[in-house]
Amino acid sequence: MVITISFAAEVYADKKILDTETPFILQAMGTASLLGDLGASLSLVISGLLAPAVTDKLLNLKDIKERFGLRVAQLLSAYTEDKTVPWFLRKLEYLNDIFKIDDKEIQLLALALAVSELRSVYRVYKDDEAAIYALDAPCEAVGMYYKEMVQRMAVFAADKTTEHAFRELSDLYSKVFMLQS
What we know:
Blueprint: H1 2-11, H2 25-37, H3 42-55, H4 61-68, H5 70-76, H6 87-100, H7 104-127, H8 139-153, H9 163-178
C-alpha cells in the first residue's frame, strides 16, 4: 500500500484542493481511509486513491490494469468522463451509470468519493464562504448534483456498515448547500 500511496502522491503532485495550498493527495487518502473503515477490499481502497486521476485523465485504465490489476481497472471504469459534455449532464450520467451497474463496490466507491469531496469543500467553505464559487461548475448545479447524490446514496442508510458514511454525506451536503438556498 505504501508504494500505491507514493505513486498517487506523484500523480497528484501538482494538484491542490480547490483554490487552496492543500495537496490533493490528502483528499484521495481520505477516500481510501473511509473505504478502509467500511471494510473495503484492497482493490477498492486503491481505486479510492486513484479515481480522481482517472476522471481528470491523469491516468488511463490500461496503465491502471497493468500496474494494479483488472479489478481496480474495472472499478475505475465508471470514472471516465467525456469532458465535452456539460458538467451537470456529465455528473448525472455518472450517477445513472454507477447505479445501473450491479456492483456494490462501485457504488461504495462513489459514496466514499462524495464524502471526501464534500469534506474538502466544507473545510474550505467554513473558512471562506466565497470559496464555494471556486467549484468546477456554478454553485446551484453543484448543489443539485450533490442533492441527487444524497438521494441515490440513501440505499446505504439502512446498512449498519455504511450508515455513518451516508449520514456524513447528508450532513455535509446540508452544511454546504442548504445554507446557499
